[in-house]
Design a protein that fits this description.
Layout: H1 7-23, H2 36-52, H3 71-83, H4 93-106, H5 109-120, E1 126-129, E2 145-149, E3 152-163, E4 170-176, E5 187-193, E6 199-204, E7 213-224, E8 228-229, H6 235-248, H7 252-272, H8 278-305, H9 315-338, H10 350-356, H11 366-377
Parallel strand pairs: 1-4
Antiparallel strand pairs: 2-3, 3-7, 4-5, 5-8, 6-7
Helix pairs in contact: 1-3, 3-7, 4-5, 4-6, 6-9, 7-8, 7-9, 8-9, 9-10, 9-11
The protein binds flavin-adenine dinucleotide.
């Protein structure tokens, strides 16, 4: 484990920093959180710029359309883009951060060639159809059925909390292909085209006012067998790869963004007099230490992942647990600094505070992360 950066890595950082300084000032303003088609166009536009400049899929393998850079370079990329305030991945979250990496490590050569380049070029958006009304934390309880009919699977069932389903082209979908098998055994991972007949997307409005996620109903949707990633009924193993990317790397860049917000909160407190409150100052100091520790933990996780072909290990659950709580505390502290202004939905940080509540649920709840840490890192006996 080596947490220092090499001269080549520092040179990469300097080039990226210079590029960001050149392009960011000319970017158009971000569309409203309500207008998903406009946000899709904005997010994909930014992705295309990254692609044209050679910064897309940095750590993806070269034969998957990526640059084959080291995980450390990817970390530098995340650090610098967040520090500079570059656009968030947004609608590209699933494609770039977990469906894409899953296909890169588990898909066939044809599947990699079909699905990965359009993600990197900012041409196609993915969503994740894992959760169902009766299968969230207990994901293996999923009931959406798929049966073979010639060269297709025919899929019926429903999914919930599907982020970006409204604007997605593809869905990483979990289905039950063997209802007679033990529940983790009969699952298959499919890439479903979102324009297939039989799919109904019903957007759900969140506390923060956005229709970021949706219910998805599937009525005899035909998905080619060729769209299966991994073997039939081996979908649970493929899913563990997806979830390890989702928990291990997908939120990493946001730690840097939180450190930037924390500095702004401290500046605001100095301006409006709240800084004189010693309890608040201590709280901000503790948060600063927390985010620094999370960044170090990330570096450690990345360094460990270099030895396992880049797939993040269970350290991702420690990160996800700590990060989602620190993020909530940050925006709670921001609200304390703002005082009554924090009730104004138009005020910066107010919507972030509302959405921060979801981070301890999305990608696996904190209770589930604690179970994983207890069983798989600490080796404690299973509670169930
Ligand atoms: C913003 C957001 C975006 C999301 N996007 C997607 C998406 O794109 N695609 C997708 O498929 N899903 C998505 N989800 C769903 C998310 O993965 C689930 O909400 C999550 O896994 C929890 O499942 P659940 O809501 O069914 O809660 P439940 O599983 O019903 O859990 C309820 C409570 O019981 C606790 N609990 C359950 N089992 C245990 C246990 N064994 N031990 C201890 N405590 C337990 C949980 O921790 C939780 O506190 C999203 C969720 C959010 C909030």
């Amino acid at each position: 484990m080596d947490l220092t950066y090499t001269p080549e890595e520092e040179e990469f950082r300097a080039r990226l920093r210079a590029w960001l300084a050149g392009v960011l000032p000319a970017l158009p303003p971000k569309p409203s959180p309500d207008d998903w088609p406009a946000r899709r166009a904005y997010d994909l536009g930014w992705q295309r710029r990254l692609y044209d400049a050679g910064y897309a899929g940095l750590h993806w393998p070269v034969d998957a359309g990526g640059r084959g850079a080291t995980p450390t370079q990817h970390l530098i990329y995340l650090e610098e883009t967040e520090k500079a305030g570059a656009p968030y991945v947004g609608a590209n979250f699933v494609g770039l951060l977990h469906a894409g990496p899953t296909i890169a490590s588990e898909g066939s050569a044809e599947q990699r060639a079909r699905w990965l380049p359009p993600v990197l070029r900012g041409e196609e958006v993915w969503c994740q159809g894992f959760s169902e009304p009766g299968a969230g934390s207990d994901l293996a309880a999923l009931r959406t059925r798929a049966w073979r009919d010639g060269d297709d699977y025919v899929v019926s069932g429903s999914k919930i909390w599907t982020s970006h389903a409204e604007v997605a082209d593809w869905c990483e979908l979990l289905v039950r292909t063997d209802p007679g098998a033990r529940k983790h055994r009969g699952i298959t991972w499919l890439a479903m085209p979102m324009d297939a007949p039989g799919i109904t997307v019903r957007p759900l409005r969140t506390l923060a006012g956005s229709t970021e996620f949706a219910e998805v109903f599937l009525d005899e949707v035909r998905v080619p067998v060729a769209n299966r990633v991994g073997a039939e009924n081996d979908g649970w193993r493929v899913t563990m790869v997806t979830l390890s990317y989702e928990r291990g790397t997908a939120f990493v860049g946001e730690v840097v963004a939180c450190r930037r917000v924390l500095a702004e909160v401290a500046r605001e407190a100095r301006k409006n007099g709240r800084w004189d409150d010693v309890v608040l100052r201590r709280r901000l100091g503790r948060l600063n230490a927390e985010f620094r520790a999370l960044w170090r933990l990330t570096q450690w996780n990345v360094s460990e992942a270099q030895g396992t072909g880049g797939v993040p290990g269970v350290g991702g659950s420690v990160f996800k647990l700590g990060y989602s709580h620190a993020r909530q505390e940050l925006f709670d502290a921001a609200a304390e600094v703002l005082g009554p202004e924090a009730l104004d939905l138009g005020r910066e940080w107010t919507l972030d505070r509302l959405s921060s509540l979801s981070y301890t649920i999305a990608a696996g709840t904190s209770q589930i992360q604690r179970n994983i840490v207890a069983e798989r890192i600490l080796g404690l006996p299973r509670g169930r």
